[in-house]
Amino acid sequence: MQKKIILGSSSPYRKALLERLNLPFDCHSPNIDESPLSEESTQNLVQRLTIAKAKAVHQERMTKGLTNDALIIASDQVAVLNSTILGKPHTQANAIKQLASFSGQKVSFLTGLCLFDQESQTYQYKLNEFHVYFRQLTHQEISNYVAIEQPLDCAGSFKCEGLGVCLFDKMEGDDPTSLIGLPLIMLSKFLRNSGVNPLS
């Protein structure tokens, strides 16, 4: 019998990505404090939050008396420009400002992935780095893009699965799905390690 799979996220982008693997799963949004700690490195922040999300879902399931035999998928992502962590823009003005600062620059996306096995109380973790090189952008292009796609809930103010690709010179990394927020190549490996093969 295949283990129950839970996506520890309310993100519609991560949900759409996981659906690609054609496995049944439920979504459960973890409730954690995502504030960075003093002097915490970006890599450590992503790892801490990713694992904390998985454990929070586990604890909430235990509190509710639900079965403890699920595989919990959790992910966290941070965008970085010149060592500065970039948040979600939330407003059109912030998105335009953020994209203007990216013009001609390299932006790095650090995406943590955790698969927590409730039964064994163990987890697999991996950090995936992906780099996006922006071309020189005009203010009109940026304004038009933001108006069309409204990427206000996306770290980096763009959707690479949509019109956002028109902003780039090139992309660099092992797994393009990590840029959207859930590295499917590594997740498939983690699932196989736990006895779940999407192709079987």
Give the uncertain stretches in residue-range form.
none
Fraction of residues in H or I helices: 25-40%
Radius of gyration computed on alpha carbons: 18 Å
Would you report the number of β strands? 7
- Structural class, judged by helices and strands? alpha/beta
**Per DSSP, what share of the residues sits in E-state strands of 2 or more residues?**
25-35%
Number of helices: 6
Q: What is the general shape?
A: elongated
**Which whole number gives the mean pLDDT?**
94
What is this structure's SSE topology?
Blueprint: E1 5-7, H1 12-19, E2 26-27, H2 42-63, E3 71-81, E4 84-86, H3 92-102, E5 106-117, E6 122-134, H4 139-149, E7 168-173, H5 177-180, H6 184-193
Parallel strand pairs: 1-2, 1-3
Antiparallel strand pairs: 3-4, 3-5, 5-6, 6-7
Helix pairs in contact: 3-4
Overview features:
alpha/beta, seven-stranded mixed sheet, 6 helices
Brief digest:
Helix content is 33%, strand content 25%.
Structure explained in plain terms:
- Helix 3 packs across helix 4 (139-149).
- The chain is elongated, with a radius of gyration of 18 Å.
- It is an alpha/beta fold and 200 residues long.
- The mean pLDDT is 94.
- It has helices at 12-19, 42-63, 92-102, 139-149, 177-180, 184-193; strands spanning 5-7, 26-27, 71-81, 84-86, 106-117, 122-134, 168-173.
- Strands 1, 2, 3, 4, 5, 6 and 7 form a 7-stranded mixed sheet that branches.
